[in-house]
Amino acid sequence: MPRLPSRRTLLTTAGALAVIGGAAAVGLQSLGGMADYDAAVAAGRGPLASRPEMRDLIRYATLAANSHNSQPWRFRLFEERITIMPDPARRLPAVDPDDHHLWASLGCAAENLALAARSRGRGAEIRSGPQTVDPVTVAFGGAPAAEPDLFGAIPLRQSTRTDYDGRAVGTAELRALEAAAAVPGVDLVLVTDRPRIDRLRDLILAGNGVQLADPAFRNELKSWLRFNPRQAIATGDGLFSVLSGNPNVPTFLGSLLIDWFLTAAAENDKYARQIASSAGLAVFVAERDGPDHWMRAGRASQRFALKATALGLKHAFLNQPVEVARLRPELATLVGLAGRRPNIVMRFGHGPAMPYSARRPVETVLA
Fold it and tell me: Is 259 exposed, middle or buried (0-12, 13-18, 19+ CB in 10 A)?
């Protein structure tokens, strides 16, 4: 799931601008403004119609969490169901070689879609099969069983990749998060004691070091970074660096800065600080390994994120120890589920609101 270079990494922009000189000054004139960006993003997060068409339900589905904000989904409309299929053009082969995160992202979108349908009086059941050829299906019918707090959080949820304020989350809130994230076939382990948080932090930092030493990972990450509002609006996807407090820079300069200054040491300092400021970490572990259960883990994490949002909490993904295969067994042992594959790691706590990430128009995700 998403991660961005640290503010410290990109704040070396001043020195780089001095080197780039006049070329950067020309580029800075065409970056676009945050007001335009915010307006474009807000248009896709408007209220759901009281009698929504299927395309409006899909709009809410696309607000789900997904890896690198790659939005790797295609939706096909039928009279009584919507199927969600992988978009192979948006795979992430370096960070997600077996499409684990892709299927988790489809689960996140399916959960949003079902919640939106139920909020408007339509029953909705999520189905999937064990193979990669089986699409995820949201079938309509039956009792709606609306969950207004989760539905209301859909347009407000965001992965908040910044420091939190260090406050603890109360026991009642933790129990509410666990209850919301209950999806058959998925276990949620909440890590709130500092010794285990520190051990999990060390796994996250180790995974980050492995990934940033891999040229393929770095190139893939760089291809999904958006460095200014104009670029972020034009693509409607990717990781907008400004959302982590980094400065607007021309696209060509942002790419150079990543090459020059994205280091494991700087990123690990950022992650260690952010973890220390969080109330805890949530680890999602499916009972089985395969697309169906990866999708279920995505559903559980989406429900957790929506409940956190409804409770006024923030969250962000720290998936390095599930993305680096050799670290998974140690992570599974740490959370008491040895022998299983961990799926998703999130931090959570009290933090500030940040600008929202962009989404592509519904027309571009229809199959």
Answer: exposed
CB atoms within 10 A of CB 95: 23
* DSSP conformational letter for 159: B
318 to 48, 206, 271, 293: CA distances (angstroms): 31, 12, 9, 20
d(CA 342, CA 164): 25
Element (H, E) at 285: strand 280-286
Q: What is the pLDDT of residues 268-322, one digit of tens each?
A: 999 999 999 999 999 999 999 999 999 999 999 999 999 999 999 999 999 999 9
DSSP string, 188-256: EEEE-SHHHHHHHHHHHHHHHHHHHT-HHHHHHHHHTEE-SHHHHHHH--SEEGGGGTPPP--HHHHHH
Look at the alpha carbons of 239, 244, 248, 253 in this order and tell me if their dihedral is positive or negative.
negative
To which H or E segment does residue 82 belong? Answer: strand 81-86
Whole-angstrom Cα distance, residue 183 to residue 179? Answer: 9
Of all residues in the chain, the percent with pLDDT exceeding 70 is: 92
- Token representation of residue 143: 């009792």
